[in-house]
């Protein structure tokens, strides 16, 4: 994707609008209303591109009330967090946007609402207005979805609010809308987007803009949340039907417009324009010091520090490593064809394992070296790495193998927030919700076939035959854990299914330390290790020790965290805001 901030700055420059950025950076853009900007399609597009730049999601990201990276809030990785300690207090929940701040949710919503109003007041053709407004409506839906999945119902602000006092505080004296009203508004905005944006954009420079399929896929995700136990504890079938209808619409719109699974599970991250799996993306650019270009940051922060200039975050836990199935699709220890052992944990695994997890002795092309092998073992209590991985592993998904170490900080790999694979699994889960179990099998088998899992004599790719509704729900969540590892999905899946206590509470996540034996190891092992059979190395030369990563506490997630508290600062500013009933208030986030 080559638009947004890059396009905005480039056009400002080409049009010699020296104050363009200053105008667009204002929270209150009302001073531009009715002027040349919204009578000119290019200048209006600049404003829209600013909205893209403000609202496109960052790779993985962090949680609203907790700065910890999302992967560290589940069994996927490790991070110390008050959420997992069970010690989060109301006053420690981040402000959700009652002050004048362009970076919080309501600050961004204000910019979107002003754009929608100003475009309406402009003189562009109605068809053009509709297409521009539809993209902004998509991002309004995106922002409200972010709020609703955190808190439940929030105040719906659908037009620019007048300034109050010295600063604009657009939430003054507005009560919370019900959760149902918020979901309805999100769906309404997304339906408008579906109606007015193209199924595909014709120009390569428009790659990454919102399409009908993007809006439909987000609508499907939103309504899947609404049908999940977090919002649907009574298993209301009408919510599952609504979710199914939306996800089937997304699937059909996308396939009609040429979307589908990419041929390669790992290489899908490195094809940009016309990538069939990229439904909703954040585009980045490779650059060195050019302020008009934005780098994704994920690659540099995730790979080993010595393979870039940062590095080492998003490290897989042993629980994540062991979760991957075997080559026949059966879970470790359940396969009758492939024997699993902790000592040889890497053998005969689902092919996604080697494309997601980097482990001691793995061949991992990095920095243009296609034969590079990663070594993380310890000798005499000291790591052979310049800086040891805390868990014993690294995440290798979406890490560019060809970038030179000095260039990794400038990585321009696009981030795919919604892949076609997610649309398939959202459809599968919704189908299970309405007892269309065969359709769920169809989607699961397609995902596993692309992964490279063996079909088996029954053609089920390791899936159990004739699963019940409950078993299929579990199978889909398991598939999502593997397919979307380190894509920021696992925490949200556990939360919307209210499974965090069952999965994590009372446990401590685990890492491994791989030690080189003190006897029986060839003297030239350090210099010849790349040529040693990995099976021999693990069998004869290495020992594996396990360690607890959560050293301070057993995980103790609390039920009230399924809907976070409205920040006390927000309530202090607006007495009409009512706290959630799980935090001492009277607001029911389930209504």
TrEMBL record:
Entry keyword annotation includes Nucleotide-binding: no
Compartment(s): Cell outer membrane
UniProt feature, compositional bias: Polar residues: 291-304
Annotated ranges, domain RagB/SusD: 276-583
Main location per the UniProt record: membrane
Key words, A-Z: Cell outer membrane, Membrane, Signal
GO cellular component: cell outer membrane
Segments of this protein annotated with the region Disordered: 291-314
Domain SusD-like N-terminal: 104-224
A Pfam family: SusD-like_3
Signal peptide residue numbers: 1-18
Family membership: Belongs to the SusD family.
Protein name: RagB/SusD family nutrient uptake outer membrane protein
């Amino acid at each position: 994707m080559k638009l947004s901030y890059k396009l905005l700055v480039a056009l400002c420059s080409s049009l010699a609008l020296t104050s363009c950025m200053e105008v667009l950076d204002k929270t209150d853009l009302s001073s531009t209303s009715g002027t040349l900007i919204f009578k000119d399609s290019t200048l209006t597009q600049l404003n829209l591109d600013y909205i893209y730049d403000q609202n496109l999601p960052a790779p993985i990201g962090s949680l609203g009330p907790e700065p910890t990276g999302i992967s560290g809030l589940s069994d996927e990785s490790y991070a110390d967090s008050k959420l997992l300690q069970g010690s989060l207090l109301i006053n420690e929940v981040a402000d959700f946007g009652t002050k004048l701040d362009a970076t919080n949710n309501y600050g961004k919503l204000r910019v979107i609402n002003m754009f929608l109003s100003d475009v309406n007041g402009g003189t562009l053709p109605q068809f053009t207005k509709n297409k521009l407004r539809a993209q902004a409506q998509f991002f309004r839906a995106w922002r409200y979805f972010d709020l609703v999945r955190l808190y439940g119902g929030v105040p719906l602000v659908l037009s620019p609010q007048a300034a109050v006092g010295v600063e604009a505080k657009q939430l003054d004296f507005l009560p919370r809308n019900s959760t149902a009203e918020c979901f309805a508004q999100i769906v309404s905005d997304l339906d408008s987007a579906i109606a007015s944006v193209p199924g595909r954009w014709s120009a390569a420079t428009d790659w990454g803009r919102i399409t009908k399929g993007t809006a439909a896929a987000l609508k499907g995700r939103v309504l899947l949340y609404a049908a999940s136990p977090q919002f649907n504890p009574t298993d209301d079938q009408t919510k599952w039907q609504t979710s199914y209808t939306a996800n089937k619409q997304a699937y059909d719109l996308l396939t009609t417009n040429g979307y589908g699974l990419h041929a390669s599970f790992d290489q899908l991250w490195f094809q940009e324009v016309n990538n069939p799996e990229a439904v909703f993306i954040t585009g980045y650019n490779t650059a060195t010091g050019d302020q008009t270009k934005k780098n994704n940051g994920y690659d540099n922060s995730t790979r080993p520090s010595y393979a870039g200039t940062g590095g080492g975050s998003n490290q897989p836990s042993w629980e994540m490593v062991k979760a991957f199935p075997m080559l026949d699709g059966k879970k470790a220890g359940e396969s009758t064809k492939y024997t699993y052992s902790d000592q040889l944990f890497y053998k005969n695994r689902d092919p996604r394992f080697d494309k997601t997890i980097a482990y001691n002795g793995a061949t991992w092309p990095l920095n243009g070296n296609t034969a590079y092998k990663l070594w993380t073992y310890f000798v005499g209590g000291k790591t052979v790495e310049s800086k040891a991985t805390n868990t014993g592993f690294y995440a290798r998904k979406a890490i560019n193998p060809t970038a030179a170490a000095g260039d990794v900080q400038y990585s321009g790999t696009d981030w795919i927030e919604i892949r076609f694979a997610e649309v398939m699994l959202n459809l599968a889960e919704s189908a299970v919700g309405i007892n269309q179990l065969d359709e769920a099998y169809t989607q699961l088998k397609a995902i596993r076939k692309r992964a490279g899992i063996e079909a088996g004599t029954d053609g089920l790719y390791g899936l159990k035959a004739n699963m019940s509704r409950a078993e299929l729900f579990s199978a889909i969540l398991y598939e999502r854990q593997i397919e979307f590892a380190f894509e920021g999905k696992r925490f949200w899946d556990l939360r919307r299914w209210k499974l965090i206590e069952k999965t994590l509470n009372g446990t401590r996540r685990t890492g491994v330390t791989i030690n080189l034996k003190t006897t029986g190891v060839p003297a030239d092992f350090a210099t010849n290790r790349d040529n040693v059979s990995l099976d021999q190395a693990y069998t004869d030369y290495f020992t594996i020790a396990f360690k607890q990563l959560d050293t301070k506490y057993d995980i103790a997630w609390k039920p009230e965290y399924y809907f976070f508290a409205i920040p006390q600062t927000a309530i202090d500013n607006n007495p009409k805001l009512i706290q959630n009933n799980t935090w001492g208030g009277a607001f029911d986030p389930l209504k």
